[in-house]
């Protein structure tokens, strides 16, 4: 899921006839799209690239943590491919969902999915996700089921629409697809948290974690906090990354910076290990799994929806709190005092919404978030492992994330004490 920005669509489908049965309408939609592609090819000519979300690497917090979602290389679909895809989406909507589309607009965001904004003939808006690799559909279905479980517990999420056969993902036709309610007039938290949004996020996360603590996949347990990161494995990873950069005949500006940053990260891992050793036992339970800024939708200063769940798997509660609260832009775009005030607001609101959460999880979240960022090689590793996704936004994110992590490590005792005092 993602917010649906108002933008010029890459392709729009406008069927003219509504007095038809599903099969006849699907045939009509097919003809309509083909006619558009042939008569007005500029409609489907929009060059589409796959926007890469800046995900942290999968944390080694549980042995059954799901693998990261695959990231597709940027692509530029041809005119025929784009039109054929729109045609297939239209047919699937009619036959699998009984939904007669009036407009279908390609949205150029998605990692493992192609996303579409839908307006049906009654004027209702929807959001469709078309899954590229079919081999991961069981995991995708589990992700949708977790979103439904959260929504049934009163958590603000987008609602999944079931097919005519009551399935959460349509898998029988040409396109594997899920269909969702449209969340209007929203903006994501990707730009960082400010003002009243700190407390709003804390309330939403507290409600979510309270609900997910009852999920049948795993009951909450206490695990050693020091195990939140495998420092020895991180040291080896940075060593390999440094060696890979040193073997390159030439380094660009960002690659040179990433090499130096990798050395700095490796140099502070001893401090990270000592910081982790001081952690108490922390709560491990089923989590959202990808609690990042792009997956929190705001309407004004209220959380309108939490979207893009991962399959249910246990992880450290403190990490998911820090994932949003220690977002690098939130940390660096404010003064340290202003950011800490916001973080305290978040944790106080979280505790009100999830009173069973321990003070240890909340206070330790700063240490956990700092350690997780410093142990992660992302996105320093991207020019070596996935050079095709390197762009200016990713480079800027890498620099901000590195700076924020080092700042948190430097100030950790003071900010942790302030948070502890606020939570008494």
Note the topology.
Layout (H helix, E strand, L loop, with lengths): L21 H18 L39 H19 L3 E7 L5 E8 L4 E7 L5 H16 L7 E2 L15 E5 L5 E2 L8 H16 L8 E4 L6 H17 L5 H25 L3 E6 L9 E4 L2 E5 L7 E3 H9 L2 H5 L3 H18 L5 H17 L6 H4 L6 H31 L2
Antiparallel strand pairs: 1-2, 2-3, 3-5, 4-5, 6-9, 7-8, 8-11, 9-10
Helix pairs in contact: 1-2, 4-7, 4-9, 5-6, 6-10, 6-12, 7-10, 9-12, 10-12
Q: Any idea what the radius of gyration is? A: 23 Å
For the secondary structure, the number of strands is 11
User: What overall geometry do the principal axes of the alpha carbons give?
Assistant: globular
**Low-confidence runs:** 1-20, 29-78
Specify the number of helices.
12
Mean pLDDT over all positions? 84
Biggest sheet record: 5 strands, antiparallel
Strand content: 5-15%
- How are the strands of the biggest sheet laid out side by side? 1-2-3-5-4
**Structural class designation:** alpha+beta
Distance between the termini: 37 Å
Order of helices and strands: HHEEEHEEEHEHHEEEEHHHHHH
Task: Give the proportion of residues in helices.
Answer: 40-55%
What does this molecule look like?
It is a single chain. This protein is α+β, with helices and mostly antiparallel strands. It has twelve helices and eleven strands. The strands form three sheets. Strands 1-2-3-5-4 form a five-stranded antiparallel sheet, with helices on both faces. A three-stranded antiparallel sheet has the order 6-9-10, with helices on one face. It has a three-stranded antiparallel sheet with strand order 7-8-11. A hairpin with a 4-residue loop joins strand 2 and strand 3. The two termini are 37 Å apart. The N terminus is likely disordered.
